[in-house]
């Protein structure tokens, strides 16, 4: 019990409760004492995260700490989110991306070991990719793992119509964040960090980019900074050089799409064939789009049994209302002759659905599906013989 896991602690608690039920009050009291002693030991033993945080300079943010505001509009320049307010569920990515993300957290949790060889964890990270791929959620999850509050900045909110005010806002913001132990999260980073040579931009924007670069240089040795952008091509090359980590979040592959669908499905229990179909149908989609499709699926399962649409009807409904979010090839198969869709599913080189899977998805028995595909194959053979 010097360093108990959650499972071990649970078993000891069950044993204590069983002893109490059997009237063994003395032994139960002994176990209660052991549990309390272990809890006190845990409270006074600094974790690796706590030791790592000691290396970050600055004060501790409080819930009443005032954030800087724009002088002209009095609008706040940032929002503070504390670790306890952040969802602790790890975002879903492929194994390569997840492993890379793990190294970021590992560096901070092994701060002391790195310090012995005169190495510091990476303090700047740029996360980029398509909208809806989980970039902002990832940044918050990192903050949760490091037990640090987030100062969330919407950079487009820093931009003022008053000449010189934007650069001043940036300066005030960095003065504030450099005072506290925190993660600075620059969302929609491309709003300001644009290419300075863009002929469409006026000199004011160029001065703003210079101010941002200068403040990032100062910030680099003080705290952890994360930038997020959906448009990496808009970033000034000098901005890229300020970030030690440049992490691209790709659209999810099949297994990740299936995992995302399964994650958002409860409390509805969907068969595995339906989860696979959703993952197959959403090829090229983002996690946010898959979540939206799952919501449509869950709504369909709540209607009366006699009115309940099948999976294919649900997918057609979603594709109609979200045409731009679904690959044109998948949409064409979905709205065409069912046999073409079934053949594509059966012949998919990676996921090849079985006749039973297709039958479950189509609401037909597998023998019916087999006959459909057989008739289609015979028709194709007859056509080839005729042309021959």
UniProtKB/TrEMBL annotation:
AAA+ ATPase domain ranges (all copies): 121-253
Annotated GO MF terms: ATP binding; ATP hydrolysis activity
Tagged with keyword Transport: no
Alphabetical list of SMART domains matching this protein: AAA
Protein keywords: ATP-binding, Nucleotide-binding
Keyword ATP-binding included in the entry's annotation: yes
Family to which the UniProt record says this protein belongs: Belongs to the AAA ATPase family.
Protein name per the record: AAA ATPase
Organism from which the protein derives: Acetobacter pasteurianus NBRC 3278
């Amino acid at each position: 019990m010097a360093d108990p896991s959650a499972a071990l602690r649970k078993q000891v608690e069950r044993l204590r409760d069983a002893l109490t039920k059997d009237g063994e009050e003395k032994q139960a009291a002994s176990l209660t004492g052991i549990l309390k002693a272990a809890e006190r030991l845990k409270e006074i033993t600094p974790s690796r995260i706590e030791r790592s945080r000691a290396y970050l300079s600055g004060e501790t943010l409080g819930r009443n700490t005032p954030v800087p505001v724009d002088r002209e509009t009095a609008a706040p320049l940032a929002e503070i989110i504390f670790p306890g307010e952040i969802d602790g569920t790890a975002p879903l990515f492929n194994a390569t991306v997840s492993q890379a993300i793990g190294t970021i957290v590992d560096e901070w949790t092994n701060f002391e070991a790195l310090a012995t060889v005169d190495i510091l964890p990476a303090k700047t990270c740029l996360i980029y990719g398509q909208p809806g791929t989980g970039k902002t959620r990832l940044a918050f999850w990192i903050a949760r793992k490091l037990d640090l509050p987030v100062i969330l900045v919407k950079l487009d909110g820093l931009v003022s119509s008053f000449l010189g005010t934007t650069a001043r806002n940036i300066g005030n913001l960095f003065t504030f964040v450099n005072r506290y132990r925190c993660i600075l999260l620059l969302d929609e980073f491309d709003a300001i960090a644009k290419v300075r040579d863009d002929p469409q931009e006026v000199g004011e924007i160029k001065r703003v980019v210079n101010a941002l670069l200068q403040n990032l240089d100062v910030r680099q040795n003080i705290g952890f900074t994360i930038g997020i952008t959906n448009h990496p091509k808009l970033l000034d090359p000098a901005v890229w050089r300020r970030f030690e980590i440049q992490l691209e979040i790709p659209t999810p592959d099949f297994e990740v799409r299936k995992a995302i669908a399964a994650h958002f499905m409860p409390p509805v229990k969907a068969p595995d064939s339906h989860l696979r179909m959703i993952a197959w149908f959403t090829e090229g989609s983002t996690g946010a789009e898959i979540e939206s499709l799952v919501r449509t699926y869950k709504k369909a399962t709540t209607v009366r049994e006699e009115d309940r649409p099948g999976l294919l009807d649900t997918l057609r409904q979603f594709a109609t209302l979200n045409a731009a979010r679904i690959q044109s090839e998948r949409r064409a198969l979905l709205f065409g002759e069912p046999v073409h869709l079934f053949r594509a599913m059966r012949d998919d080189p990676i996921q090849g659905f079985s006749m039973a899977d297709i039958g479950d998805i189509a609401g037909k028995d597998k023998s019916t599906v087999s006959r459909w595909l057989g008739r289609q194959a015979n028709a194709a053979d007859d056509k080839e013989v005729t042309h021959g």
